[in-house]
Amino acid sequence: MPKVYLRTFGCQMNERDSEQVAQMFVERGFTVTPQADDADVVLLNTCSVRDQAEQKAIGNMNHLGKFRRRNPRMVFGMMGCMAQSRGAQLLEEAPHLDLVAGTQKYHRVVDHCVEIMRAKEEAEMDDLRRPIIDVGEEEGSQNTIRDHVDKDYGVSEFVSIMQGCNMKCTFCIVPHTRGPERARPIAEIVDECRHLADRGVREVTLLGQIVNLYGRHEFPKVDGKSPFVQLLEAVHEIEGIRRIRFTSPHPIGYKEDVVAAFTYLPKLVDHVHFPMQSGSDRVLKRMHRPYKAARFLEICERMREARPGIAISTDIIVGFPGETDEDYLETKKAVEAVQFDQAFVFRYSPRKDTPAAEMEDQVPERVKEERNQDLLALVDSIVERKNHAQVGTVQEVLCEGPSRYNKARLSGRTRTNRIVVFDGDPGRLAGELLDIRIVESSGHTLYGDPVLHPAPDALVGA
């Protein structure tokens, strides 16, 4: 039985795409192996958002190429955003590549690999390589990401609801690598979520580049509700689904109906990931982000009014071209005003073929790093304080199974997306919503004890 090794770089959408590819390999008789040297097919799913991710993927692929000496018929491939943006150029940087598959071609990857394997079986040893480059657009490709790999404790799953982005932020390569917005039909997404619920999944995360703009070009409003809210309501009706998350939204997609959904859809968790990018209006304009900092803060306030106690996480870029000390201080001021529950801070990384890469006033790397470390320190202090405030409280936690770092213990997430580690039997508790009393906070992780409730019979006559 042939084996495939698959490694993923980048975002949750890449993780979801990789899962689809893995499932298609399994359906064709392959087994998935965690060992690259044991594989017949080696694939990397790549990210282009930052240069570091690209360099890491190239370095990893060239390192893996040493296995070709042991097995000349091994197939090497790169797929995803970096494959889409660089195409045949990747053959110059990783000469042993057999396959380069773009973001609209995940459903073709297995066929291409099988074709290459057959060609190598038939070819002479000095004519093994016939690389396939497949990065063209394909209509309907957004509808091909719908299958899931069976997991021991698959209680929380990602569901891709759309592909692409029309926003064209000046720092971002995603519109080039993922193409324009394309939405899946609501009925298909609901069927996928219902199937997951039947398999024991209790939480779904709806994925899209600009998730709260889902379906705005394909589907009409109904009773004043956007297609995204219609989708939220439909998934909310699925028996067995206990929690709904979504990522990543955009400020322009937070219309009244989206905010209002948090007042009447209790399965929506008490957490939103809401990218701010900068707190400076001048920098936001250069980023081509069509809102001002005050508008971002207003939406955060409205979300907290709609769902008291909601946690807000964000993405922030420091060192964007032309960012002055005053601009950076505006970002710090916004972070202090919102008091984010988590923030992912990134140094600006020039991406080829994006307007920001050609802008004047590029910020020196030294300044980027100083601002990055300074803002991280502020964010960490806020997060640690907020996490410490959880000690002594009882939180609803969805048990996801054994802890990632200590298999003898369990872990799960609160409704506010905080990780909690506790003791228990994974076979009995995985997939259950538990009340956990928080007893300790350490960095970004909480520790707690399950709250024991009396059996229903014990309450009779109490």
The oligomeric state is: single chain
Q: Tell me the name of the CATH homologous superfamily of the largest domain.
A: tm_1862 like domain
Mean pLDDT: 93
Whole-number radius of gyration?
A: 23 Å
Q: What is the topology, as strand order, of the major beta sheet?
A: 2-1-3-4-5-6
CATH architecture of the largest domain: Alpha-Beta Horseshoe
Helix fraction bin: 25-40%
CATH class of the largest domain: Alpha Beta
Structural class: alpha/beta
User: Which shape, going by the Cα principal axes?
Assistant: globular
Strand content bin: 15-25%
- CATH topology of the largest domain: the name is pyruvate-formate lyase- activating enzyme
The count of DSSP E runs of length 2 or more, i.e. the number of strands, is 19
Fold and architecture overview:
- It contains 15 helices and 19 strands.
- It has helices spanning 12-27, 51-64, 81-86, 90-93, 109-122, 174-178, 186-198, 227-236, 256-264, 281-287, 293-306, 325-338, 365-388, 426-429, 456-459; strands at residues 3-8, 31-32, 41-46, 75-80, 99-101, 132-134, 156-160, 162-163, 182-183, 203-207, 243-247, 271-273, 311-318, 342-347, 394-402, 410-414, 419-422, 433-442, 445-450.
- It has a six-stranded parallel beta sheet, with helices on both faces.
- The radius of gyration is 23 Å and the shape is globular.
- 44% of the residues are buried.
